[in-house]
Design goal:
Elements lengths: L15 E7 L4 H12 L8 E7 L17 E5 L5 H11 L4 E4 L5 E2 L1 H14 L3 E7 L11 E4 L1 H7 L9 E4 H4 L12 H11 L4 E10 L13 H22 L4 H26 L2 H13 L12 H9 L3 H10 L2
Parallel strand pairs: 1-2, 1-4, 2-3, 6-9
Antiparallel strand pairs: 4-8, 5-9, 6-8, 7-9
Protein name: Glycosyltransferase, group 2 family protein
GO molecular function, one term: hexosyltransferase activity
Organism: Segatella baroniae F0067
Length: 324
């Protein structure tokens, strides 16, 4: 296996802690996730693989025996993904941390590019692209640095925490809200960007995510839909409260993020319920928190079209018919 220097730009020992929450996924998929890390141009001293088993019905350890000397395996009571990630952060010792869902994997060429950015620049964070296309090309560009607030003011934030390679001292200064089943990434990544001074970003498609019907984000039963929407509103409310405590630059950045999450919330109400009644209830819910009408901003074309459509009955009817 090819390796790089163990020292980063500032002379500090370079190591990435890969944190993998695991709960009942097929072990063949988990092994593929681990193998993708081992294919990276990182020496054993430069990587730390932490699997946090969130109380699976059957431990995957027997199927991971070939990796036993390369892993840190922790088994805990089932408390959800957020608790598993938090536990992984407490154990992590790397200069950087990288979250990976157990049913996903890293794309070596593209992710190695992200590692090289971190090594060369000592970046607080490297943001990269996820993909569900195994045949994705490898755009190995580099942009930045910008502050996290500047990034949020200019771009839509990738909600998934798995799209970021981040310094442990920053990532572990925050924790995931364990009472949230959904939208915990939206809260965590937003707060993380607000505390980040130097972000480098690349279009490299370094993270492959599987579309699995059994995964949490693809649950379609009524209670899961309600919980997902309620969690989204709770995160929006928390971020709104946070914005009142921030200086102007950070507050402006958070304003865009809250507006985007509010749009996403209404979009998901339409997509999950296909109900005009539920859409009106959701709009009234946002109004109670001063979040509707959506701000008259031109953040993205999608945002502008969606914002304008919500102003009329005809526009709402169009959205209800078009979004599936």
């Amino acid at each position: 296996m090819q390796t790089e220097s163990v020292l980063s730009q500032n002379g500090e020992s370079f190591k990435v802690s890969f944190i993998i929450p695991y709960y009942n996924e097929p072990t063949t998929i988990l092994k593929e996730c681990v193998e993708s890390i081992l294919k990276l141009r990182l020496s054993p001293e430069e990587r730390e693989i932490i699997i946090v088993d969130d109380g699976s019905d059957i431990s995957p350890l027997d199927d991971l025996m070939e990796f036993q000397d390369l892993l840190i395996y922790i088994r805990c009571k089932n408390k959800g993904t957020s608790a598993a990630r938090n536990l992984g952060m407490k154990v992590a010792s790397g200069k950087y941390i990288q979250f990976i869902d157990a049913d996903d994997y890293l794309i070596p060429v593209a992710y190695d590019h992200c590692v090289q950015i971190a090594k060369r620049t000592d970046a607080d964070m490297v943001r990269f692209e996820p993909t569900d296309n195994e045949a994705s090309d490898y755009a190995l560009d580099m942009n930045g640095p910008v502050s996290g607030s500047e990034y949020m003011k200019s771009f839509n934030l990738k909600a998934s925490v798995c799209s970021y390679l981040v310094k442990r001292v920053l990532g572990c200064s925050l924790f995931f809200s364990e009472e949230l089943t959904y939208a915990e990434d939206e809260e965590y990544t937003t707060k993380l960007l607000l505390s980040t001074k130097e972000v480098y970003y690349t279009e490299a498609k370094a993270y492959y995510y599987r579309q699995r019907n059994g995964s949490l984000t693809h649950k379609t039963d009524k209670m899961s839909k309600i919980q997902r929407l309620n969690n989204s509103v709770e995160v929006i409310r928390r971020l709104c409260d946070l914005s009142t405590t921030l200086p102007n630059v950070e507050s402006e950045a958070l304003e865009r993020r809250v507006a985007q999450l509010s749009m996403d919330y209404l979009y998901n109400v339409i997509r999950l319920t296909h109900s005009g009644k539920h859409l009106e209830q959701a709009i009234n819910n946002l109004k109670e928190h001063g979040l509707f009408p959506l701000p008259e901003k031109n953040y993205t074309t999608k945002y502008v079209v969606f914002r304008k459509a919500l102003k009329s009955k005809l526009g709402k009817a169009f959205l209800l018919a078009a979004i599936r």
